[in-house]
Amino acid sequence: MDSLCLGIETGFCITPSEPDLPVSGDFGEFMLFRLSQSKRPDHKHLCAVIDELSKALAEGNHSRTPVAYFAATCSSLDSLLSADAELPLDVVQPHVVILSLVFPKVSAGVLKRNGLALHLVLSVLRLGSVTPECLISALKCLVHLLTTSVESLMGNEVSEAYSILLNLVTHSDGKTSRGTRTCHSVSGTIAESFQKHLDLAHKSEARSAEGAQQVLYLLSPLKECLALMSKKHIATVIEGFKMLMITRDAFITRPVIDSLNAFCLNPTSEVTAEALVEVLYHAAVLFSAPETSADAMTSTARLMKVGMVRAFSLNRDVCVVKLPGVFNGLKDIIASEHEEAIFAATDALKSLICSCIDESLIREGVNGIRNSNLDVKKSSPTVIEKLCATVESLLDYKYHAVWDMAFQVVSTMFNKLGEESSYFMRKTLEDLSDMQDLPDEGFPYRKQLHECVGSALGAMGPETFLNIVRLNLEANDLSEVNVWLFPILKQYTVGGRLSFSTETIFRMIEIMSHKAQQLKLQGLTAASRSVESLVYSLWALLPSFCNYPVDTVESFEDLGRILCGALQTQAETRGVICTSLNILIQQNKDVVEGKEVPVSDAIPELVRASAPYDSHSAAANLEVIRSCAPKLLDVLSKIFHESAKDDGGSLQSAIGNLASIAEKKTVSKLLFKTLRELLMARKTAIAEDESSVSGMEVDNTADKNSSSNLRARLLIC
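and the corresponding structure tokens:
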């Protein structure tokens, strides 16, 4: 390939542009004279072939001009390539060299006649064993044909010719400066020809069949070369593509979509955001799903993904204006019955939500809603409101067959908007809640629904979430309580407020506990137990509220007092409380110690909640917990000493975590207290042993509070 690059730069020793190369004189005589002194073997082969061609022309009484040699060389080379015998490459090369020398002296009309010249050049380039010098000459012929006769060339050979040219001039070990200029030259010619025939095809009178035919032929090579064109020619072609999209003819628009896809995927291609967004908008809006093939819809969806992201990187303001139209076009594709197209459109919507919706767009929408609430005149919905309305519409029944895909898009929007989703997607959350009432027989996407509702909870936060979708604990009929929300609240609550637990959740617990007691007094044991299960479900939310809370400094002291009371009076809550304390302490310790927080990109709410945590905020959190540690340790150690068992080791774990952050004097005090109790227990055990020996009957088998049992637990502690 190095020889090829060198040939592109220097050419044959007799170049096709020499001013003394005859146009109407004896080409053969001129060449033989110039090569008569050369001793190179390839020159001798060239002279031999020229001599044979001269004799043939003389026998036929033909002139020996470059045009005559062109015709004779084409005829001879065609015979060589068509023969069944082994191809003599040392004879083929001189023929190709002659063609490369005479092409510039032959008119375009003669070159294009019958398409023989292009056919012969491509046949030589397809050969796998030709010499670099032969490839150089064939390449020169191809470049000349494409730059002078591309308007009149037709068929698949045009596309193949351009593909071969691109391969030769762009894969030459970095030495492509001349090749790049060649590509630009040919690309420019194709772009101008494309525009010319497009204008011809769109004439108001009888639309030119010739122009339309040429446009179709040019669409294939445009896919190969569009990204390599100059910015000016790219703009010309993109404008032409926009005109073709309006035809809504799949036979025409499909190759346009393919060309745009290839163009947008090339990082070096240059185009203005305005031109790109316009043609993408037409592709999205004008492709009607019921009238379009599955392949076309799939290609269009993929184009929207790569194209709009590319346009956003070029000019954010130009891109976002067209986003609502693009979203609607992708929504129509999701409504189709073609699985691949549905997946592509879903992926495109998710990608555009993540890439093209930014803080500025969200803030604009929030301000618009706030202004409307203040009775400030609002002209029309903002872009983000339009996008959210499109996403919400995916929950309409017409999309019921693809609700699993719709839930993915809705979840992505919730995750992108975060807390601000409460401004734009309250109705969406209400619709999701209503879908819970759908019967299982006609609704196979229950799991996906709950995941989507969970993304709404993670984005909005539990407080806002429960203001929109209520637990309905006050219902007289317990079957009307939204118990399906408890697992979602437990799994997806993160970054909430501890104060919400103390002010709201614990208030619910108090009310429901009182209700359970009243039902029990009325003899309604089953109902009482059902309410008690709701109380425990509320308590089970505590660990989730201790998962990266936002107000530990302000609210933990109140929470600590409540937990101390519950630990002493409600034994069934001890495991949940200890787990909550362990989570809260360990997360802050990890941040202070510089340990990497185990955050997965697949859990956006966890990413958001842990982001504000740094060593300073975590240290402040631990300081507040440390101030409450003496009371908590006192209560926990007393419970541990008196309890018969510690299921799961939660009590020990909580005591250990609290002790690890408590002040030394607090830990020392606890240790001395434990040692004193251990000493007393030991003395008591000795006394019991002596009494037993003296004959006293003492039954210790079932005594949970015996001195031996207590001593064992003190030793563990």
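(Above: one complete record from the training split.) The chain is about 70% helix and 0% strand.
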